[in-house]
Amino acid sequence: MIVSTCKFRIRYAETDQMGYCYYGNYPAFLEIGRVEALREVGIRYRELEESGVMLPVSSLEIKYKIPLRYDEEITVETEISELPEGSRMPFSFKIYNENGDIATTAIVVLVFASTKTGKPQLISDELLNILKPYF
Amino acid sequence: MIVSTCKFRIRYAETDQMGYCYYGNYPAFLEIGRVEALREVGIRYRELEESGVMLPVSSLEIKYKIPLRYDEEITVETEISELPEGSRMPFSFKIYNENGDIATTAIVVLVFASTKTGKPQLISDELLNILKPYF
Amino acid sequence: MIVSTCKFRIRYAETDQMGYCYYGNYPAFLEIGRVEALREVGIRYRELEESGVMLPVSSLEIKYKIPLRYDEEITVETEISELPEGSRMPFSFKIYNENGDIATTAIVVLVFASTKTGKPQLISDELLNILKPYF
Amino acid sequence: MIVSTCKFRIRYAETDQMGYCYYGNYPAFLEIGRVEALREVGIRYRELEESGVMLPVSSLEIKYKIPLRYDEEITVETEISELPEGSRMPFSFKIYNENGDIATTAIVVLVFASTKTGKPQLISDELLNILKPYF
Asked: Is the ipTM of this complex over 0.95?
């Protein structure tokens, strides 16, 4: 299992006129979480893409439990709970607010695809070998 | 049942370096869809909020089937399939690409809440009366 | 001279907790304005880029005079006041609010560049010939 | 004079299909820079707003010299070079890319305003007293 956390503040740009963090900004937070989780195990998404593999999103589920507010320092906890199989790679997330409460939970499924054709492809052995020791 | 459609183009701002519309921009598209659906039945979200009622998002589910691309004119179809009960209001969505294919499906659940306290509250009789004839 | 207008509403996603349209969303509005101005004279930016020419932004100036608000229908007026020379293409903008007041003025300078090398290049004769009749 | 720096990475959400950081995301970077500059001298923008004072943007100028790219760690250097007078507060910025080159320069002028009326007002003596020792 891979579990990784990162922290950052809600930007003013991300608020809406309710005074909350706009619900459409959370996918970008989840993206930061998974990029940092991959970085921790030695996979840099930028290099992955340069090598011809991209990871578009196939599905997204978010439960908004407690609103996040401007300037709050949030903690995104990203979990890869199973070794990816085939072309799918699921991630699950918890976002903690400044008080340490679970403000949000989310699941994102990525798909390995070719940057040239856009078509799904199997996860490479190279990546599998990097990930295996964690499972 | 309320079904409403609106059309707009993917902005350059909404693309990412895969050359696709970034997955985090879809929630804003869904928001446009539901605001227009409400406008069609005579409810202006801006006025609702001015009157003290807001509709934060409780949950979001998106399935990304076909990528959307820059300058593509998309059609967002918003459906309210059941009369809201209690404090919840679910919407379902289909996004059609320029070829008329279903590129995305989504479900969003909103919650009626007070702009003053932030707490959930029951849908008002006034709103129910506007919505009832459609169901 | 080319003058083009387009209209659209401020999205909820674009508000901030002041209750205004966030200042960082205006560049996307200006981008819509100039893409529509080019479309009106028969130039589709998407095709330009597919043909190997891109137009990154070199400089941006915005004066925020009157705040824009949620759901307001704004009018972006885009003006190309001189035939582009060399590799630079300046645009000027006025954004009108729902009352018809000038809420914002802006100037954006684009640069013709190669999508392959990223390097600036001269405007092509083909584009110049399309633009010339307007000046 | 107040000079403050902060570092963060360009998000995937912030790229566009040119493969660059989209020009409309820079205002949010500048906002982070000035919020951190104020935090360093003991002013928390969130509290300022809670106390009834907000700082909407009056004007913005950006020069884009070198494109920023995905996952690049940028350094935003924010400078307040003169003690604010009246209701205006100008900030100037340099954004350094990962190589240490100046990728962007910018100037933003904020205006002190009342959160209740939206009208400009003079900078308070309390804020002036916090800022004075730096000039």
From this structure: yes
